[in-house]
Design brief:
seven-stranded mixed beta sheet, mainly beta, 9 strands
């Protein structure tokens, strides 16, 4: 995929929304992802924990991306929100409309975390076969 192939997804219809909280779970230093129901998602071979429609736009509401990076191993994703907290380089690097393949937003210790969930961002991704 070339950069020229990336289109603005922010005005497109979203076929499915997923919520992920990146965080630390038991045992200590075991990083986990939870979905909107609070279910822990761990890698398990041959275990389908959720599905996404192919060729459609999928939205991810992410929180805790200051604890562990969010990354999808196939498709890049587009940021939909401006970074309002932090210094100027954070605001310049994490702009609505930018494309990333990994998202980690360092959080300032003097900034309150949104809803107790750490740094957050909504991203959009268009799925494809791989």
């Amino acid at each position: 995929m070339l950069l020229a192939d990336l289109v603005d997804l922010r005005g497109q219809e979203v076929a499915k929304n997923l919520t992920f909280v990146m965080g630390q779970g038991p045992p200590l230093l075991d990083f986990v992802i939870t979905n909107a129901t609070g279910s822990l998602l761990h890698f398990k071979p041959n275990d389908v924990q959720y599905t996404m429609p192919v060729g459609e736009v999928v939205g991810f509401d992410l929180s805790g991306v200051d604890v562990h990076p969010f990354h999808i191993h196939i498709n890049p994703f587009q940021l939909t929100e401006e970074q309002v907290d932090g210094n100027m380089w954070l605001k310049d690097w994490f702009k609505s409309g930018d494309w990333h393949d990994t998202l980690f937003i360092p959080y300032r210790s003097d900034t309150p975390k949104k809803d107790g969930g750490g740094a957050s961002q909504r991203v959009l991704m268009q799925t494809d076969y791989f």
